[in-house]
Design a protein that fits this description.
Number of strands: 19
Protein name: Flagellar hook-basal body protein
Domain Flagellar basal body rod protein N-terminal: 5-35
Low-confidence stretches: none
Strand content: 25-35%
Domain Flagellar basal-body/hook protein C-terminal: 217-260
Keywords: Bacterial flagellum, Cell projection, Cilium, Flagellum
Number of domains: 2
Domain Flagellar hook protein FlgE/F/G-like D1: 113-155
Shape: elongated
Radius of gyration: 28 Å
Number of helices: 2
Distance between the termini: 20 Å
């Protein structure tokens, strides 16, 4: 009975975590460049149950021999193994704001490859992002909305001096005083990236390889790739699964209560 109790409880916990991920996706539905999280739910590893005991032999000294009897396999429920971002391209929408940049991925040589803007976080470490909702700070640097520097192809912060600059389709920023290639990085496997806060990703990335095709569109933003209708449907399914496990848990709890109160009283 306790095994079923733990199985139902683990199912409730898994659906709760799944619901939290879906809620985060909905909350970021309007965040530029946001990539929806997908949960992977798996069962706990199976365990082989064996009965151990002693068998008494019909001898003068009643000699006992230990034995193992295989009963079968069992697992004790499910859990959320990890959350994996979906790196599919979001919709491109026009904003008309010159500091907004959309990175449109046309073709990459690797099946799981991806292109990103290079930025510098508050600790001075390089990170990757698809959120091109940039602005100009008080010192004239091109930064993200969180104040992180947007980097050039050489890894230096870009300082156009003001919001009046042009960006070509190939990612060349042209200001009055300088011409700077935007830092656009490529990773062969986006699934190896680690998702951090503020729409940033950590992981290995290098220069754009030959064969990779992309466009940088100024005055446009890549929207999130959250499918609102699908996400709401998944939230309802997760809620129903949580309720079902809750009912099972309640039934086990009532059975345990009867075992303690009624069966114990008979003894």
């Amino acid at each position: 009975m306790l095994r079923g109790f733990y199985t139902a409880a683990s199912g409730m916990m898994a659906q709760q975590r799944y619901q939290e991920a879906l809620g985060n996706n909905i909350a970021n539905m309007n965040t530029p460049g946001f990539k929806a999280d997908q949960a992977t739910i798996r069962s706990f590893p199976e365990m082989l149950i064996q009965a151990q005991g002693n068998k008494q032999l019909p001898t003068k000294n009643n000699f006992k021999v230990p034995f193992n009897q295989t009963i079968g396999s069992i697992n004790t429920g499910v859990y959320v193994q990890e959350f994996v971002p979906d790196f599919a391209q979001g919709d491109i929408r026009e904003t008309g704001i010159g500091t907004d940049l959309a990175l449109v991925q046309v073709n990459v040589p690797d099946e799981n490859g991806g292109l990103f803007f290079r930025v510098q976080n508050e600790a001075g470490e390089e990170r990757l992002t698809r959120n091109g909702n940039f602005t100009i700070d008080g010192d004239g640097y091109l930064v993200t909305n969180q104040g992180y520097y947007v980097l050039s192809s050489t890894g230096e912060p870009i300082q156009p001096g003001g919001p009046h600059f042009n960006v070509t389709d190939t990612g060349i920023l042209q200001a009055e005083t300088q011409t700077v290639p935007l830092g656009i990085a490529y990773t062969a496997d986006v699934n190896g990236l680690i998702k951090e806060g503020d729409n940033l990703y950590a992981g290995e990335a290098g220069a754009v390889p030959a064969g990779a095709e992309f466009n940088v569109r100024q005055g446009f933003l890549e929207g999130s790739n959250v499918d609102a209708a699908r996400t709401m449907t998944e939230m309802m399914n997760a809620y129903r699964s949580f309720e079902l496990n809750q009912r099972v848990l309640k039934a086990y709890d009532e059975s345990l209560g009867k075992a303690v109160s009624e069966i114990g009283r008979l003894g």
